[in-house]
Amino acid sequence: MSVSLYVALVLAVGVERLAELVVSKRNAAWAFARGGRETGFGHYPVMVVLHTALLVGAVVEVLVADRPFHPTLGWSMLVVVLACQALRWWCIRTLGHQWNTRVIVVPGAGRVTGGPYRFFSHPNYVAVVVEGVALPLVHTAWVTAVVFTVANAALLTVRLRAEERALAGLDERVDAP
């Protein structure tokens, strides 16, 4: 894969992220109109910066460090990246209006337990974690993969705690008489 094709791939992932933000904004409006409450918003700007840095870092590393394309690694990681996109959109479709890039819960909505949520509590984060390794490795940008993975682990620790607290409160309201 040429560098220009890799840059096009990363740009396509960036466009996909922008599409997610459009869906997220629409879903946030839906949630707020139904009494939704946002929690854990302090980490959100950090998440935006980190995910943007993944895309920029992967391209910059390939260009500046002249990272080569290794076909066996590159093509297999491309398949993984595509699988991550499929999983991500399966999550978005399964959650419907409840999916968001922010932590917003709607009282009485309840937890979604279908689709990929039958198998994992947080399948979207499985996609994020795996893609954070796979996308840079399509063109051997291993420094970006390592830095993103470490930073993302710290961020996800905060994010998952915020989500679990919000969902626990949602479950309590649903179960209340």
Question: Could you name the key traits of this structure?
Answer:
single chain; 177 residues; mainly alpha; Four Helix Bundle (Hemerythrin (Met), subunit A); disordered C terminus
Description:
- Keywords: Membrane, Methyltransferase, Transferase, Transmembrane, Transmembrane helix.
- One of its GO terms (molecular function) is protein C-terminal S-isoprenylcysteine carboxyl O-methyltransferase activity.
- This is Isoprenylcysteine carboxyl methyltransferase family protein.
- The protein has helices at residues 3-33, 44-64, 71-95, 123-137, 142-175, and strands at residues 37-39, 103-105.
- It starts with a helix and ends with a helix.
- Helix 3 (71-95) runs antiparallel to helix 4 (123-137) and helix 4 (123-137) packs antiparallel against helix 5.
- It has a single domain (3-175), classed as Four Helix Bundle (Hemerythrin (Met), subunit A) (Up-down Bundle).
- With 177 residues, the protein is mainly alpha-helical.
- The chain is built from five helices and two strands; from the N terminus they run αβααβαα.
- It has a two-stranded antiparallel ribbon with strand order 1-2.
